[in-house]
Amino acid sequence: MTATFSKKSPAPAPAAAGGPRESRRRGDAGGRRMAALLLSPTLLVLALVVGYPVLAGLRESLYVRGEGLDADGFVVEGDRFAGLGNYTAIFSGDRASAFWNAFGNTTFFTLTTVVLETLIGVGMALIMHQAFRGRALVRASILVPWAIPTAISGLLWRWIFQADGAANAVIRQQVLWTADGWPAKFAVVIAEVWKTSPFIGLLVLAGLQMIPREVNEAARVDGASALQRFWWITLPLVKPALLVAVLFRMMDVLRMFDLPAVLIGVNQRSVETLTMIAWFEASNLRYGSAAAYATILFGYIALIAYLFVKILGADIIGDARAATRQRKTERRKKATP
Amino acid sequence: MNRRVLTYAGVAAVAVYCLAPFYWMVVSAFRRPQDQFSNAPVPAPFSVENFTAVFSGDNGFGRALLNSVVVAGITTALTLVIGVFTAYALARLTFRFKNLVLGLVIGTTMFPGISQLVPLLKLFTGIGWINTYQAMVVPSLGFALPLSVWLLTAFFRQLPFELEQAAMVDGCTRGQAFRKVIVPLAAPGVFTTAILTFIAAWNEFLIALSMVNRKEMQTATVAISKFTGVSGFDQPFGTQMAAGVIVTVPLIIVVLVFQRRIVAGLTAGGVK
Questions:
Q1: Residue A84 lies in a domain
Q2: Which of A19, A330, B90, B229 lies 20 to 30 Å from A167 when distance is taken between CA atoms?
Q3: How far apart are CA B36 and CA B25, in angstroms?
Q4: Phi/psi at A80 (nearest 5 deg)?
């Protein structure tokens, strides 16, 4: 259809000579070469600094370092192929309990912080959306926890959670927050939620501001209560933004390191996460074992992300896809006069 | 009326929630070291002793700040130079596998830092890169580059495409149209991306902690976490809070000045 029209109509400008379809095809060939040229630096760098290490890590996890005896009884130095030895070692004996402890901590932190962050974040967003005066103040203050480096916020909370620190003074109890057990876990959760729930709040606020006022007003006229309006209008419309935020947060907590390491300390059973265990192995030069832990963690993160996207339908590149679609329809519209 | 009061109470609650811990850091930093454990809401005799202690000889904090600026600065500059072209292609050109490429770039952020770090640690030990800037910059590209490509793509997509076409109809080449039309229009987005990437790189801890074991090469975040007190047993919280204020306040000022842009960037990218 495009072609027939362009044949009949005289070319309006030299740029369009040859008809829209042909020029587009030519543009695409140039565009493709151009795209390859522009994309390659990023892809190359990512392949070198992420792709290669991840593959090397997979290989590393199959090797052990150190001395061993070969078949003839000679001492061999250096890396030795161990098959799945590093993995089976993780799941056997003493180290199995350390692993499951770290796995449990990682999962516990992820569940509790993400749920709390989402609740507090949505609450903050609703408050900010309501407030007209004071919105600037809130938006400024909400950026403060976000801007503080995680390691520094770990120190700050370690200071607050001292035995004779501010937290105990406020609750008038003597809790040994940074020592061990559940208080240490809760300290990490509180510090993490403080730092990251404003981020969710900001994203949800952006989603709220996109909702046309009329939708809410129509529902109000129809007699929907505030709670009903929240549940049936606000939440479904905010859901896409919220899901992406939650997905990013989840992937971030699953690899948590700085906060528990600074707030409580490395090699502390109560707060040890999978990243911390892997880091500890690597800092003791047991690279093979560290790589095995890292691989397991990666598998876990990939699984969670996959399930999250499958079950809840979070669409990370949805914007991009929508933009492509829109451009295509626009072009089609332009092509048909 | 009731509703208004409730809203204000909510606003106050949010502000207190966000600011109280930070306020405590500032207050603790301005106490005299001997008042460190006082719980008074304002530092009674105001003192900058903690701040002078931060820069005292054996902490090497000045050098650590410099290291942070160098590492975060180089990381930001590199990712912007590389990322701008890719983001332009992703936002403007039509080609097959576009969403696949974007998905790939985002997908790399799914790898936990540690699975990238372990092999690099081994590699850098082998080639003698431990305790160098490049040992911190190169792994940082792994998280900074996807971040900036993602943000820049989101910003570029909002630019008016027609202007570029108009320039090309007027005789500009694609390169000229990019340089003379798109770059000036995109500058605010690029600037915002630069701030966000710089903050992410400045806050980095795991890589800097693992790749460096010499004090002179530590970045500020690592150095502060390793401050030792006079006795070596009790943690010097006053000094650490003062150092925390020093590395945080410039960031907070930048963030507040460019508040609108940063919020736009965070929500456009949906990043951490």
A1: no
A2: B229
A3: 11
A4: -130, 135
Asked if residue A102 is part of any domain, the answer here is: yes
Q: Three-state DSSP class for B165?
A: helix
Contact of B130 with chain A, judged by CB distance below 8 Å, is answered with no
Q: Contact A39/B101 with Cβ under 8 angstroms?
A: yes
Beta bridge partner(s), residue A68: A76
pLDDT tens for A85-100 read: 888 888 887 788 889 9
Highest-pLDDT range among A2-11, A78-87, A239-248 = A239-248
Using 50, 70 and 90 to split pLDDT, how confident is the model at A25? very low
Mean pLDDT value across residues A32-56? 88
pLDDT of A309 over the 70 cut: yes
Residue intervals in chain B for CATH 1.10.3720.10:
60-269
What is the count of structural domains for chain A? 1
Residues of A in contact with B123 (CB under 8 A): 53, 56
Residue A26 has pLDDT above 50, yes or no: no
* Contact assessment for residue A228 and residue A191, using Cβ atoms and an 8 Å cutoff: no
The CA distance from B132 to B217, in Å, is 7
The CATH classification number of B60-269 equals 1.10.3720.10
Give A126-173 pLDDT, tens digit per residue.
888 887 777 778 888 888 998 899 999 999 999 898 877 787 778 777
CA distance A194 to A213: 31
Taking a C-beta distance cutoff of 8 angstroms, is the pair A156, A77 a contact? no
CB contact under 8 A, B221 and A152: yes
Q: Do B28 and A290 touch (CB under 8 A)?
A: no
Shortest distance between the Cα of B272 and any Cα of chain A, in A, equals: 7
Give the per-residue pLDDT at A74.
65
What CA–CA distance (Å, rounded) separates A264 from A270?
Answer: 9
CA gap A122, A235 in Å, rounded? 10
pLDDT the model gives residue A330: 62
Return averaged pLDDT per consecutive 10 residues of chain B, 272 residues in all: 80 90 91 78 82 79 92 95 89 82 84 89 90 93 90 84 83 83 84 90 92 90 78 72 90 86 74 45
Q: Look at strands A75-76 and A68-69 and give their pairing.
A: antiparallel
Q: Does the beta carbon of B61 lie under 8 angstroms from any beta carbon of chain A? A: no
Does B119 contact A255 at a Cβ distance shorter than 8 Å? no
Q: List, as one string, the DSSP characters of A254-312.
A: HT--HHHHHHT-TT-TTT--HHHHHHHHHHTT-HHHHHHHHHHHHHHHHHHHHHHHHHH
Question: Quick one: tokens of A28?
Answer: 């695409």
CATH code, domain with A180? 1.10.3720.10
Residue range(s) defining the domain that contains residue A265: 92-329
Phi, psi of B216 (to 5 degrees): -65, -20
Question: Closest to B247 (Cβ–Cβ): which among A145, A149, A278?
Answer: A149
Single out the residue of B263, B60, B39 nearest to residue A139, CA to CA.
B263
Nearest CB neighbour to B119, from listed A53, A128, A131: A53
